[in-house]
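Quick question, first post here. What does this chain look like in 3D?
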Amino acid sequence: MEFFLIGVFSILDLLLFYIFFESVLIPMYLIVGVWGSRERKIRAAYFFFLYTLLGSVLMLLSILYIYYQIGTTDYETLLTFLFSKTEQKLLWLSFFGSFATKVPMVPVHLWLPEAHVEAPTAGSVILAGVLLKLGTYGFLRFSFPLFPDASFYFAPIVYVFSIIGIVYTSFTAIRQTDFKRIIAYTSVAHMNLVMVGLFSFNTIGLEGAILQSLSHGFVASALFLIIGIVYERHHTRMVKYYGGLVHTMPLYTLIFLFFTMSNIGLPGTGSFVGEFLILAGSFKSNTSATFISATGMVLGGCYSLWLFNRISYGNIKNQYLKDYIDINKREAFAFLPLISGTIILGLYPEILLKSIHMSVNMLVEVTHFSSLNMIYILETKLLEYKSIYFSLTKIFGLGQFQSFLICKKLGLAHNCNLSKLTPDQIIQLIKFIESLGLLINSNLKKSKIILAKKLVEIKSYKGIRKLKGLPVRGQRTHTNAKTASKFR
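> Answer (accepted):
Ran it through. Tokens below.
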């Protein structure tokens, strides 16, 4: 499995990526189906295998289509090729089906609770710590750079599914009675929050999503180890059989409390930093989605604290459990790297962020600048004779005060025409607006820009005169011909 995982994260060829991506299913299927802990392990293994395999069939067909159209599946070569918008949408949907199943997103999440419950402790740790990150990696590596227009187009749909996943799985986790199934549903909620950060399409949201993915790997893996410890001693995961463990297993309860707080997003842990960055990034793109997603943190406190309270406090249930043995040295040493990683990411996240900042910025640049964005707008003839203030207010919907602040920050006059700016000043303006994470979210503004783009591209005489404020009707004179020739 390690060989396949290293291949997935390092290969830059679509076809080879698909082979390694699907090869991970084989060892995981054996771990669940052969070394599972209960009678339903075969059913869970089939759930896992069929969901993830069927979700990837369309991706294979898309890869074959790409090879037929371009003649190669090399990733770096594909980055130089521009697919049509229809092709992007169809290809994006096929890749989305595969990656969304791996995340997993609602409604293709049903395999995960089953696989977690039936898998041995080691299988659950691998599943939560590594395999769930394959989906988010696929979006970052392939969907965003190769199909940027489609990624923007389908972002609202992803937001809807992610929000439903956060709220639905959080409520479902509250009503569960199986220790492991509760943590499995919390994993779905946290990974759907990661999807909200990914589709914010700005540096803050993307870095938060990556940080949260890594933090979730530490926290979820530790929680499954915590479950495995009590299951190894008492051979049951039903919450009703446990109680009062703080009296009999104090060290175990202390570690359980730490990772419960981390799961909630307590300040000082990596989950807090990741969730904060995700919400801050998505707030720039979609305020409503951010507000609803934030309810997942509230619900996370409900199911996490209630679970910890039922397990750790209350009366000792001697009628069910007889022998209580606290964690030993071997188990304590297994938690040390997970505790250290969680604390380091919480107290000094810069250790990760500074290493991914350049890559994330490049991804944002590729994704934004391949779509309808600031660079294209600034370079069109449409805005060449418009002021900076007009561009910032009419196109990006900024307020008058915000526009003045941006111009003042860059030392530019707000009524200065873009045609009078030097190339360095234009680049400086673009970079500053990019750093703010400004996107064109209004469909009306998009349609206006697309219409203007068409007028410029076809060099429409009537359209150019209308944009210039000149009379549209009348005979074409020598002066008018000279005016129109400027745009050829």
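The chain has three domains: 1-149, 154-357, 372-457.
Residues 371-385, 438-449, 451-461, 473-488 have pLDDT under 50 and may be disordered.
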